[in-house]
């Protein structure tokens, strides 16, 4: 349970059998949708991939694609793909200070390590589109809880670990409810609510809302 502005949030209790295994056919359809839409997205966005790659190379030294270890389904680590938005090796300078896991906010809009092109990519969420390859591979879904870094997961209380019961996603209920600007406690609340109420129709609804949120730049950093 968390409290935010005098509002109490009760974390959903996920029953792995009732809420997940009984929805096996829904998850099968979800995987079919993930494969189909990720292939279509990759093909359509190839020119965008090329333009962004050129812009990153002209703006700063370093690789076009940033790879980082994240925690996925069943607490298994995988490499997430993103367009690089920071100067080369900037992630090595990162020092996480987690005093209160419930109020932790990972992103910072004033991070001096972010490049000029990177700032634009983050604001438009275009830095996330290489994750379509993660979806195609099968270690991510289009919709689900955002994959967390190991250092943060190590601080998870037991109720937070329920978000690791499903594949992480490019977008999710938490992202359309605030994107990068809400604290972890509220993010978990939305993630568990999504898992509890999951359906393919729910995914489609979140995908459409994601498009509108990005276009309105809600919560963009």
UniProtKB/TrEMBL annotation:
InterPro entries: Bact_transf (IPR003362), EPS_sugar_tfrase (IPR017475). Belongs to the bacterial sugar transferase family. The chain crosses the membrane at residues 32-56. It is a multi-pass membrane protein. It is found in: Membrane. It comes from the Bacteria. One of its GO terms (cellular component) is membrane. GO terms for molecular function: phosphotransferase activity, for other substituted phosphate groups. Its main location: membrane. It comes from Oceanirhabdus seepicola. This is Exopolysaccharide biosynthesis polyprenyl glycosylphosphotransferase. The keyword Transferase applies. Residues 30-215 form the Bacterial sugar transferase domain. Keywords: Membrane, Transferase, Transmembrane, Transmembrane helix. The keyword Ribonucleoprotein does not apply.
């Amino acid at each position: 349970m968390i409290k935010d502005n005098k509002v109490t949030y009760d974390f959903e209790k996920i029953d792995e059998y009732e809420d997940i295994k009984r929805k096996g056919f829904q998850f099968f359809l979800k995987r079919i949708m993930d494969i189909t839409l990720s292939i279509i997205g990759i093909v359509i966005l190839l020119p965008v991939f090329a333009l962004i790659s050129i812009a990153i190379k002209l703006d700063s030294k370093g690789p076009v694609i940033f790879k980082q270890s994240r925690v996925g389904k069943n607490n298994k680590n995988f490499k997430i793909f993103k367009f690089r938005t920071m100067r080369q090796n900037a992630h090595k300078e990162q020092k996480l200070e987690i005093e209160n896991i419930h109020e932790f906010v990972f992103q910072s809009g004033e991070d001096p390590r972010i490049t000029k092109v990177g700032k634009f990519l983050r604001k438009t969420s275009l830095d996330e589109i290489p994750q379509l390859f993660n979806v195609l591979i099968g270690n991510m879904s289009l919709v689900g809880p955002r994959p967390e870094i190991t250092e943060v997961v190590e601080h998870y209380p037991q109720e937070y670990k329920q978000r690791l019961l499903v594949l992480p996603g490019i977008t999710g209920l938490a992202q359309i409810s605030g994107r990068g600007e809400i604290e972890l406690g509220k993010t978990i609340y939305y993630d568990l609510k999504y898992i509890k109420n999951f359906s393919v129709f729910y995914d489609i609804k979140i995908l459409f809302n994601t498009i509108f949120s990005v276009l309105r730049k809600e919560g963009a950093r």
